[in-house]
Write a structure and sequence with these properties.
The protein has 138 residues and is α+β, with helices and mostly antiparallel strands. The protein has helices at residues 2-32, 49-62, 116-132; strands at 40-45, 77-82, 85-92, 103-110. It has 3 helices and 4 strands.
C-alpha cells in the first residue's frame, strides 16, 4: 500500500509541472497578441500644458468629436475621451532643471486595436493639434 502511494505521488509531480508550464505558455500567447499603444501618435511640444490641452480640444472638435467646452486639465496632465478617440497631454521635465526646458507630451489614440484606419485617424488628430499650436505637420 505504501509503495502504491509513493508511485502515485511521484507520478503526479511531473504532471503538475507540465500543467503549470502549459498554463504559462497559454497566458503568454494571449498576452502577446493584444496591442494597446500601436494605434496612437505621440509628439512633444514646447508649449505649456493648458495651451496644448486647448489645442487638443480644438483638434477633437475639428475631427467631429463633441468635446465639452468646460473640459480642463489638471496641474500636470489632462485627458479628453470622446467615443473611441483619446488625447492625453502631460507636462514633462526637460533635460535641465530650468522650467524653460520643460515640454508637453501629447498622445492621440483612436480605437483599441492597431490598424491603418486607427493610425490615420490618430494622425489627423495630432496634425490638428500641431496646426493649432502653429507647428508644422510631418
Amino acid at each position: 500500500m505504501r509503495r502504491t502511494a509513493l508511485v502515485v505521488l511521484l507520478a503526479s509531480v511531473p504532471l503538475s509541472s507540465c500543467l503549470v508550464a502549459a498554463a504559462a505558455v497559454a497566458a503568454a500567447a494571449v498576452f502577446g497578441t493584444v496591442k494597446y499603444t500601436e494605434n496612437g501618435v505621440e509628439r512633444d511640444f514646447k508649449q505649456d500644458l493648458t495651451t496644448c490641452f486647448d489645442a487638443a480640444k480644438k483638434a477633437m472638435k475639428e475631427n467631429g468629436y463633441a468635446v465639452p467646452d468646460e473640459s480642463k486639465p489638471g496641474p500636470t496632465e489632462g485627458k479628453l475621451t470622446v467615443g473611441d478617440a483619446v488625447i492625453e497631454v502631460s507636462r514633462r521635465p526637460g533635460e535641465t532643471a530650468s522650467a524653460d526646458d520643460d515640454f508637453t507630451h501629447v498622445l492621440a489614440k483612436v480605437g483599441t486595436f492597431d490598424s491603418d484606419e486607427t493610425r490615420r485617424k490618430a494622425k489627423l488628430l495630432m496634425d490638428a493639434v500641431a496646426r493649432s499650436l502653429g507647428e508644422t505637420t510631418p
